[in-house]
Structures are given as structure tokens and as C-alpha cells.
Amino acid sequence: MQNRFVLISGCSGGGKSTLLAELAARGYPVVEEPGRRIVTDELASGGNALPWVDPAPFLRRAVDVALQDIEMAKAHSGWVFFDRGLIDAASALEALTGEPVLHKICSVHRYHRRVFVTPPWPEIYVTDSERRHGFEAATAEYQRLMETLPALGYDVIGLPKLSPSVRADFVLTTLGGCLTSTA
């Protein structure tokens, strides 16, 4: 049942991956961000499906990877935490191309009703070889997601600007802890 699939979304550079690392350290299955995996693959192979080179193919691939991630996560019991996912990719693809993919795909493939979002946090925002966009673009992405998630029927839960450990406690407490880790 997919209601145990918990999406961590929000502002790029807001601490999602660090939170997921904390949850993984506690024994919970986590799914790494599709976009970062694609960028790593494309940079290693000399490919062009990169958000700063050819964003539409990058986003189409991110949708495909997110769908595969959902299928693979079904093998786990208990909570499974996703660093971004299908909604992030489909929302960005629709915003970029106008292709009406968001509601069609995301109405069939659902995450837990509560989606946790990282707010813009300029004090920790950094760019790197895989995140080349600036804070302004990250904030625009956050605003788009803050409109998209409720429109898809999700309860958006803002994550506090606190340590990864406190954030993980917050997520697990908010979820009610009725499903446990596999550790």
C-alpha cells in the first residue's frame, strides 16, 4: 500500500538529502533523488539530459526513474522515504513544456497524504557540480511545489529549520510512528 511512501520535497538545497541520510541511519529505507542520480549518470557518460543543457529530456527521464523507484519501493515494509520524486519531476516537466502530465500520472501513483517540504533556507544553500541553479531558481521551484502539492490533495507539512536529527524526529512524530523501521 503506497500510503507508507513518504515524500520529502520542497526547496532545492533545503536539507532534504541530509534528512534522508538521518532517516537511513535510523534504519528506514530511503530513495535517493532521481535528478541527482540522472545528473551523475549523464556527467559520467557525457550525456546531454542535464537540467542546464536539455531540461525536457532530463525531466522525462526523472519521471521514468521516479516511477521505477515507486515500483522498487514496494519490496519494503514500513515507511519508505523519497528524496523528491514523481510529483517534483512531473510538475517541473509540465511547467517547462505545458505537457499535461501532472494530474494524469500523479493521480494514479500516490504518496502518503502528508508531504514534508523543506523551506527556502539561504544559510545552508550551496551549489555544486550537480546543483548549478541559484537560490532564486530554487525558491521559484519551491513556490511551484507549494501550489502543486495541495492541488493534488496532499497535506503539506513544512519542516522546521533545525538539525537533521530534530527534523527526523518531527517527521516520525507527525506520521504517528505506526510503521517502524526495518532495522
UniProtKB/TrEMBL annotation:
Stretches assigned to the NadR/Ttd14 AAA domain:
6-162
Where do transmembrane segments lie in this chain? none
InterPro entries according to UniProt? NadR/Ttd14_AAA_dom (IPR038727), P-loop_NTPase (IPR027417)
**What name has this protein been given in UniProt?**
ATPase
